[in-house]
């Protein structure tokens, strides 16, 4: 079973809060489901633009393979909660159009305008190690 660490980006804090405890997959999902996303966005709205450092975010990192998955909250045009998803992973990339073979490189993929339930579904894939399902999301964009 994989274990995880996580960090929190608070709207009003320049420094990212890194949690030191190691958590289980179940804890990852509980933290994401129970995080006060809307309250944090409302708090962010109450701040002056110069006082906002981040949108509310939770970033989970797998201790065993260092892949990470981040949920970042925002409102859409109708003021409905939505997320951008950020996935940091190793990927084989072609060197010089593939003429010199391939090399493994760490890449960060992101996608925007994902609803809360779908975000939790992809977080579930992440904690279950179903990385291909996550990667397919980024291929579709």
Strands, total number: 6
> How are the strands ordered across the major sheet?
2-1-3-4-5-6
| Average predicted confidence as pLDDT | 91
* Radius of gyration of CA atoms, rounded to a whole number: 16 Å
Unreliably modeled segments: none
**Number of helices in the DSSP assignment:** 4
Which range does the strand content fall in?
A: 35-45%
The biggest beta sheet, please?
6 strands, antiparallel
Note the overall shape. Answer: globular
Q: Which series of helices and strands comes N to C?
A: EEHHEEEEHH
> Helix- and strand-based class?
alpha+beta
| Percent in helix | 25-40%
End-to-end gap:
30 Å
Structure description:
By secondary structure, this protein is an alpha+beta fold. Helix content is 30%, strand content 38%. A hairpin with a 5-residue loop joins β4 (68-75) and β5 (81-94). α1 runs antiparallel to α3 (116-128). The longest helix has 13 residues, at 116-128.
Draw up the topology in text.
Elements: E1 4-9, E2 17-23, H1 25-34, H2 37-46, E3 57-62, E4 68-75, E5 81-94, E6 102-114, H3 116-128, H4 131-140
Antiparallel strand pairs: 1-2, 1-3, 3-4, 4-5, 5-6
Helix pairs in contact: 1-3
């Amino acid at each position: 079973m994989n274990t995880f660490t996580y960090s929190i980006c608070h709207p009003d804090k320049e420094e990212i809060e890194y949690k030191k405890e190691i958590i289980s997959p179940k804890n990852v999902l509980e933290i994401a489901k129970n995080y006060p996303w809307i309250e944090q966005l409302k708090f962010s709205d109450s701040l002056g633009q110069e006082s906002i450092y981040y949108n509310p975010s939770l970033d989970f990192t797998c201790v065993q393979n260092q892949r990470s998955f981040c949920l970042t909250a925002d409102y859409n045009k109708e003021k409905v909660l939505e997320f951008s998803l950020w996935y940091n992973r190793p990927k084989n990339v072609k060197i010089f159009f593939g003429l010199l073979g391939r090399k493994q490189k760490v890449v960060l993929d992101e996608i925007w305008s994902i609803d809360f339930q779908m975000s939790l579904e992809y977080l579930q894939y992440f904690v279950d190690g179903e990385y291909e399902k996550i990667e397919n999301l980024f291929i579709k964009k």
